[in-house]
């Protein structure tokens, strides 16, 4: 074995072992013939973290398999029950005359050979000796190679690293597969990407940028990336290097090559090769080749040790599962999240312990509106997070707190650490911009994270859409328009920007622009339920509730037809809220019951509870509140928004405004935030402020109530798409009237009537407002 390069050989052929297994073996070899306890091994191999004993057992299992130990014949590693392990084979140092080198193994502990006076036949041992300043440990002669009685001999080679720079961008081409086995198609490329993405100093060219470059070249955007095409894409994307791989048969074995070339100069950077005995060993070969390239590209040994989880541990040991997983991401990049779901499901059928497949499935479900399924899958990924790389664990943990537990404070901490560890990764910034900072009412911070997302992923729609949304939360229409225009200039997919374009037009009152977005969405089947829903909230905001409910029912039907029960339930929930706020109690109860029958996720339960409380069903509303409190004790939206609002509305409708005000005190830290419900279906933002204003009105405190309603009007775009915003004018008019400020009250009523000039004439809230206006003196 070669400690410096972490290579184990049998008859000059590398034997695949994971880095942790290699370090375990080295620890045993250094103390051969001695008993090493499990505690000592855990402390030496995993010095910086707590791990389960099963990790050590797995390493021992892998080593025995690699060395050829069998249960009947333990030639190398012997278990001593209750004491630990012992390396039983003889260990000797092999040297080559001609050089004197300082032995310094690339392990977590600096290792040198103890120059003891060994008697003939005795074994020289590798001992952990700290290097002291000014002291050198010279070998008797030459490069050190330890042989584990396998008859192997390996000469150390020194290759000077080629530093690609702090902003190295890598294009990973498709592997050329001449084996005839389709299991390698896309799979090896996906595996290589997973390995390289662990590096904090490298950045891979995104699939969006690759497709864009291929289109400009007149190639199919979904074509294979090989040969001259790959090199041209590399040049067009301004990448630092292109990695071209191949796999070919050699008798019953396989040979893998990985060649890296500087895109700017055409100079070869590295050439890695591996030979494996079976296709199951190819994932380990990809791990080794990726490690070799990273070292050759100038990555530090410390970074390689810290950020180098073997592919079989970072993803799956199954090639078939990895193939399904890679196809899932390929489909997602080309067709969107929903069509990719079956591929991630297939990966999990093959390997039920595939952590990142669960996480990816959770992300796809969450993005398509299936909150409950998204939560279930990311929770399962979190349970299996030890079977992922450090970078993937950041993703899993951040999304777990953000979606499964809903603890946005913890999600924020994880995202910040993730961004510090991987400064070239855009996802932590998009998480912060897209939901974490919004719940925490940090809109300025969210906008900054949106800009950072664009900076790191300029060819993806996500950052532009987030920046447009976050700018609107800040009432910065110009900033939102700039984000939309930047996306257009970049040639970003128009479908991905349809929602922010529509909501910007709605916020500006631009009916013509809204119609254009409706017409655009109508030719895209995947957007049909969405566009009906957007039309429905626009109708409801102008008081045309009958039209809004008709459109909403069509949206529900389309969602159900597409198998999206949770999305359909959210549409029903919002219809229930409209009916309740507008004074139609019977219809509100009916819609709320229908929503809960479809899906009872957090947001549906919250919206239904508010609608039922407004409709006078305090018992059912309180039951739903208790369920939320029991099932989601950490959720920031539940704790600071949902529960206080439900209980305040129940108290208010029950004639206890003082109790309602007390209940809403819990909302104070994040009352100006946008809870998950507003992100899922445009309801719930500023409800604590609105109902505090209503409670203060009921308590005959007109001045204080006016202050609450003014808060909403000053932050109008936080409630974009929610008809409750329009009712704020009515609340403020009543507050002014209560304070004796008739002229101000009249102005607010008139503003409300102007917005609702074409509203349903029999709407209860409109009829009451007209009566109040007529009684003003």
Descriptive labels:
3-stranded antiparallel beta sheet, Arc Repressor Mutant, subunit A, 777 residues, Rossmann fold, Serine Threonine Protein Phosphatase 5, Tetratricopeptide repeat, 6-stranded mixed beta sheet, alpha+beta
Given helix and strand content, the structural type is alpha+beta
Task: Assign the CATH class of the domain at 9-147.
Answer: Mainly Alpha
Radius of gyration: 32 Å
Q: How many beta-strand runs?
A: 15
How much helical structure, as a percent, in the residues?
55-70%
Question: What's the CATH topology label of the domain at 9-147?
Answer: Arc Repressor Mutant, subunit A
For the record, the CATH architecture of the domain at 9-147 stands as: Orthogonal Bundle
CATH fourth-tier homologous superfamily of the domain at 9-147: Winged helix-like DNA-binding domain superfamily/Winged helix DNA-binding domain
**What does the main sheet amount to?**
6 strands, mixed
Distance between the termini: 96 Å
Regarding quaternary structure, what we see is single chain
In terms of DSSP E residues, the strand content is 5-15%
């Amino acid at each position: 074995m070669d400690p410096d390069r972490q290579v184990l050989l049998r008859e000059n052929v590398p034997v695949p072992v994971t880095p942790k297994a290699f370090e375990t073996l080295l620890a045993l070899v250094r103390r051969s013939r001695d008993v090493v306890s499990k505690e000592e091994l855990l402390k030496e191999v995993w010095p910086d973290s707590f791990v389960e004993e099963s990790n050590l057992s797995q390493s021992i299992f892998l080593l025995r398999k690699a060395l050829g130990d069998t249960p009947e014949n333990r030639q190398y590693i012997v278990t001593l029950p209750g004491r630990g392990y012992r390396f039983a084979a003889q260990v000797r140092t092999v040297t080559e005359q001609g050089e004197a080198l300082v032995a310094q193994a690339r392990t977590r502990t600096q290792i040198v050979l103890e120059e003891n006076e060994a008697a003939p036949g005795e074994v020289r041992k590798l001992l952990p000796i700290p290097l002291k300043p000014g002291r050198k440990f010279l070998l008797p002669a030459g490069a050190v190679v330890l042989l584990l009685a396998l008859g192997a001999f390996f000469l150390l080679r020194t290759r000077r690293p080629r530093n690609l720079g702090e902003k190295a961008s890598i294009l990973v081409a498709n592997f050329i597969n001449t084996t005839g086995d389709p299991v390698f198609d896309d799979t090896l490329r996906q595996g290589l990407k997973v390995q390289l993405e662990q590096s904090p100093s490298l950045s891979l060219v995104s699939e969006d940028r690759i497709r864009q470059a291929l289109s400009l070249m007149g190639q199919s955007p979904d074509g294979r990336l090989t040969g001259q095409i790959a090199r041209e894409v590399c040049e067009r994307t301004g990448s630092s290097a292109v990695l071209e791989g191949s796999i070919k048969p050699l008798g019953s074995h396989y040979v893998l090559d990985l060649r890296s070339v500087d895109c700017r100069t055409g100079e070869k950077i590295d050439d890695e090769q591996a030979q494996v005995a079976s296709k199951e060993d190819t994932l380990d070969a990809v791990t080794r080749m990726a490690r070799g390239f990273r070292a050759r590209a100038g990555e530090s040994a410390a970074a390689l040790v810290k950020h180098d989880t073997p592919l079989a541990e970072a993803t799956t040991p199954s090639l078939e599962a990895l193939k399904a997983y890679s196809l899932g991401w390929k489909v997602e990049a080309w067709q969107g999240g929903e069509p990719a779901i079956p591929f991630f499901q297939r990966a999990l059928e093959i390997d039920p312990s595939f952590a990142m497949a669960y996480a990816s499935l959770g992300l796809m479900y969450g993005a398509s509106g299936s909150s409950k399924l998204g939560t279930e899958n990311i929770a399962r990924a979190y349970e299996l997070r030890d079977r992922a790389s450090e970078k993937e664990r950041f993703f899993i943990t951040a999304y777990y707190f953000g979606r499964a537990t809903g603890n946005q404070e913890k999600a924020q901490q994880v995202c910040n650490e993730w961004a510090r560890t991987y400064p070239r990764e855009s996802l932590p910034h998009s998480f912060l911009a897209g939901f974490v900072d919004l719940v925490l009412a940090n809109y300025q911070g969210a906008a900054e994270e949106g800009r950072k997302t664009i900076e790191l992923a300029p060819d993806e729609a996500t950052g532009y859409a987030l920046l447009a949304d976050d700018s609107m939360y800040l009432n910065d229409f110009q900033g939102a328009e700039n984000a939309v225009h930047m996306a257009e200039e970049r040639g970003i997919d128009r479908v991905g920007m349809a929602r922010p374009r529509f909501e910007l037009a709605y916020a500006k009152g631009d009916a013509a622009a809204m119609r254009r977005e409706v017409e655009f969405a109508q030719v895209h089947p995947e957007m049909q339920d969405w566009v009906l829903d957007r039309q429905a909230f626009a109708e409801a905001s102008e008081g045309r509730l009958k039209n809004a409910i008709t459109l909403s029912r069509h949206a529900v039907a389309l969602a159900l037809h597409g198998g999206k029960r949770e999305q359909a339930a959210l549409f029903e929930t919002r219809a229930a809220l409209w009916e309740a706020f507008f004074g139609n109690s019977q219809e509100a109860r009916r819609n709320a019951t229908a929503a809960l029958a479809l899906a009872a996720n957090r947001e549906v339960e919250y919206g239904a509870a508010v609608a039922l409380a407004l409709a006078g069903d305090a018992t059912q509303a309180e039951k739903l509140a208790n369920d939320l409190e029991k099932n989601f004790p950490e959720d920031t939206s539940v704790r600071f928004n949902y529960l206080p609002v439900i209980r305040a509305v129940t108290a208010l409708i029950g004639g206890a405004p003082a109790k309602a005000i007390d209940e809403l005190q819990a909302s104070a830290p994040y009352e100006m935030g946008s809870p998950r419900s507003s992100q899922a279906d445009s309801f719930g933002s500023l409800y604590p402020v609105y109902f505090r204003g209503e409670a203060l009105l009921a308590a005959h405190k007109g001045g204080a109530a006016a202050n609450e309603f003014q808060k909403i009007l000053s932050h109008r775009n936080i409630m974009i798409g929610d008809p409750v915003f329009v009712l704020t004018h009515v609340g403020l008019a009543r507050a002014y009237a209560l304070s004796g400020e008739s002229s101000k009250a009249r102005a607010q009523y008139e503003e409300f009537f102007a917005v609702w000039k074409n509203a349903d004439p029999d709407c209860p809230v409109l009829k009451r407002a007209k009566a109040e206006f007529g009684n003003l003196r």
